[in-house]
Design brief:
Blueprint: E1 7-9, H1 13-32, E2 38-42, H2 49-56, E3 65-69, E4 71-73, H3 83-90, E5 98-100, H4 109-122, E6 128-131, H5 149-152, E7 161-165, E8 177-181, H6 183-187, E9 192-197, H7 199-208, H8 217-225, E10 229-234
Parallel strand pairs: 1-10, 2-3, 2-6, 3-5, 6-9, 9-10
Antiparallel strand pairs: 4-8, 7-8
Helix pairs in contact: 1-2
Length: about 240
């Protein structure tokens, strides 16, 4: 592990989901006492969905909360693989919440991220970011070997979003074209959680933290998060 990186272990995946939703709720609740609006960036996938549903049930002033996507496949809402659809479904009970998608109809990802950039730039710095990790040590849509990865991981970059072409990257499956937050956008977040489950994912993470960030991009995210980062894990 990165020195001093907290690893919170939970006894079960149900406890992991409840713990994650509770931590996110605490971050949002605290930020609401200090700011007019709160912004949170969330990852897609099946793993965090129970945590999102539990979070949506929390008694928070959702009318003052902006939910953004850490990344998304370049598919329209309603199509298979859409993280925007997952969030809209999971947060159906969060009355008044604003969800900001990434997909722009009729555009390729490289053009569409430019259209979404002004909206996402206004949400910075995010109060919380929740990341996941694939078996290839990617997080967000930072796939090892993908086109656009170096730009997305540039610590001096000014953009909030980047387009990724992960053609040939097994972890991208049938959706190589992606939009994703950049490293600087994640680095400045007030709280960054990495949610993983299973002994296999923990082994991947431990190996990644000793690897080159371009080969194991999750390492770049956790190093950038620094003391604001925490790993949440259950067997």
């Amino acid at each position: 592990m990165i020195p001093d990186l907290p690893l919170l272990s939970f006894d079960s995946r149900d406890a992991l989901m409840q713990g994650t939703s509770g931590m996110l709720a605490d971050v949002i609740r605290d930020a609401l006492t200090r700011k007019a609006r709160v912004s949170v960036a969330l990852s897609g996938g099946s793993t965090p969905e129970p945590a999102y549903r539990a979070l949506a049930a929390q008694a928070l002033d959702w009318s003052r909360v902006d939910l953004a996507l850490v990344d998304d496949r370049w598919v329209a809402p309603g199509e298979a693989g859409s993280n925007e659809t997952l969030l809209r479904t999971a947060f159906a009970a969060a009355s008044g919440v604003t969800i900001h998608g990434l997909y722009q109809p009729g555009t390729a990802a490289a053009e569409g991220v430019g259209m979404a950039e002004p909206v996402y730039a206004r949400l910075r710095p995010f109060d919380a970011v929740l990341l996941g990790m694939g078996g290839d040590a990617h997080t967000a849509s930072w796939f090892p070997g993908s086109a656009g990865l170096a730009a997305a991981l540039d610590p001096d970059g000014q953009a909030t979003l980047a387009a990724i072409d992960a053609t040939g990257c097994a972890g991208a499956q049938i959706w190589p074209h992606r939009a994703t937050l950049t490293l600087p956008a994640i680095a400045e977040a007030g709280w960054t959680g990495l949610l993983i489950a299973g002994d296999d994912k923990r082994s991947v993470l431990e190996s990644a933290l000793a690897d080159d960030p371009l080969a194991a991009p999750v390492r770049a995210a956790l190093e950038a998060a620094g003391p604001a980062g925490v790993v949440l894990w259950a067997p």
